[in-house]
Structures are given as C-alpha cells and as structure tokens.
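Local shape tokens

___
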Amino acid sequence: MARPQFFYSEALMGYDMGPQHPLKPRRLAMTRDLLASYGAFEGALELTDPKPLTREEAAQTHDAKFLEVLERLSGGEAVVNAGRYGFGTGDNPIFRGMYESSLLYSGGSAAAAQAVVDGADVAFNIAGGLHHAHYARAAGFCILNDCAIGLRRLRQKFARVAYVDIDVHHGDGVQELFYDDPTVLTVSLHESGRTLFPGTGDTDEIGEGAGAGFSLNLPFAPNTTDDVWIEAWRASALPFLRAFQPEAILLQMGTDPHYLDPLAHVNLTAQGWLEAVRDVRDLGVPIVAVGGGGYNLTTVPRMWTLAVAHLAGFDVADEVPAAYAYRAEIPHLADPAPPNVDANARLRARRFADHSTAALNDLRRHPAWSGKFA
C-alpha cells in the first residue's frame, strides 16, 4: 500500500504577511522538521511537492474579479477599492507574491483531496485550512479557501462529504460556500462569536434551502477545558457526523484552541484536542487533513505531529528527539498538565457548552435528519 502523502514545499514560506503578523509561515517548516526528526518521511509518509492550483480551478470556488484583483495586487499594482475584496487590512495586508503563494497552498489541498479520490486513506496539507476566505473577499489571514476547494474535489467522486473544523475560530467561509448544499455537512467547533472573530457560528446557523440542517455549529465560551469540549463534541456534533455517514471527510486541524495560543480564550491541551482527531479517524472513512490557525510556535508543530501520526498510523514518542532543532522549546509532544482555570470560569464554560449541546441536538427534529437517529 502506498504511503500517505504529506504535501510540503519551501515555497510555501512565500505566504508571508510580514514580521509583525501573527501567522508565521515557519510553523510549517517546524512541523515538517519535527516529523522528520521522528523518521516519518523514511517510511510512514511520502513528502510530496504541491503544484499550484490553476486560475481556472480557483475560479470554480472564487469570483473571477476577485482573482483578477488578487493577481494585480500581488504583482505590485495599485487597485482602487482593494478593500472591498478584503485586502489592505491588518489581518490581510497586501504582499508581493500573494497570488502565487495562495494558489500553491490551495493546490496542496486539492492534491491531497485528489489522493483520497484516487484511493488513499489519508493525505495531508498542513499549509491549508484557510477557512475564512469568502467567494469574493479575503478575511482572517485567508485569501483562497482551500478547504472548499478540497471539498469540491472530493465531491467529484463521493456523494456525501463532511467538513470537520476544530479550529478555535468559526469556519465561516466554508459554511457560507456550502450553506445550501445537502451533500456537504459542515461541522465547526469554535469559541463563540460573542467573544471571538469572526462573530458568527451560533447554533441557529443551520443552512438554507436544500442545505437546511446540514450546517452544524458548536460554540464554546472562554475558559473551556478539555473535559467540557470533548463531552460536548461527543454528545452532539459527533453523533450527527455518524448519522450523516460521509464517504470522505476534510478535517481542518487548527491548533489555536490550545491554552497557550495568544489569539483566543479556550483552554485545551494538546492531548485533549487530539481526542477529536482520534474520533474522526475512528469513523473509518478517507480523510483529507489540512492545517489552520495556530499562533504559538511551541504548540503548533507538536499538535500537528501528534495529529499526523495518529491519522497515518505510526507511533511517536512523547519525548521529542534530540536532533530536533527546537527541542529546547518543545521537549515533549503532550502537555505535562492542564492549565489552571478558576472554578467559576469552569462552571460558566460548562453551562455555555451544555446550552450549545442542547441547541444543536434540537436539530435532530429537523426534517433533514428524519429517521437518521434511533
């Protein structure tokens, strides 16, 4: 059996929004190097260069005018009203080469999806997971929506596909692009939009038209810990995922729910977050695994290494190999202890999660799910 493909290229470092921007491209290289220190590319994984998406392929998901503006800005041309397309903001600054680098990371997700279409059990593109990009607007550090591009590629073969997003931010761009599509189930676990960008993702966002009932959101409060997050996921969203019976899954593995991440307020450990990855794996269907958010460089590489190892089926020791260049900062993959969270904050987070769980489970009565639950 062919080894799972891990799409990566040094050229992905070109998706660089500047030294002050929270999204650090070197987190990709740090993850590749950590996996290499475990010998992952000597037997478990096949390291593969991604090819850029073509303009025509990108236009299947994004507005043609948006792509034209992106290319012009990328080449240094001034474009009037670039802001209407989401460019020139603090989140999405204009930088040279952003057109080419966006096509490259999107090409990685398309290729990973194609590998699954061709029969692979799992394929990886950690440079992907840019789930905030909209049809005609960049947002939240994201320019092209590689998740949607990968899902469309999966739909070329599979009748039902699911998108599972465990990033701390709501997967709004993906939800929007499939909001009326009953063949794509979108599932997002995230910090509530009441306290975090992009301000969306409440339980009443369920889809529209033929897609009504097939957008699932499980929002959490600040200070949510492993036990609350895992319990809510397994009591609500995971049963829906099982009931949908997807033929393939695209898993967005944002690591920013971790308690050390600077851009959010959820308090998961690496091993708590990993439980959802395991649950998705245990569904037994092919998986395209992409990256996503993650802004603490001591957490991103180890969490993605754990996820890749579990999905690809190889063992990694908790103690990081001595050969790894960042071993002083990252000595272990798992967290030694959970964060200290005030008892009252824990109680508020649990009550919020209980409310989200109940609201999501009310969707079982929706006609879209008739007869799907015993």
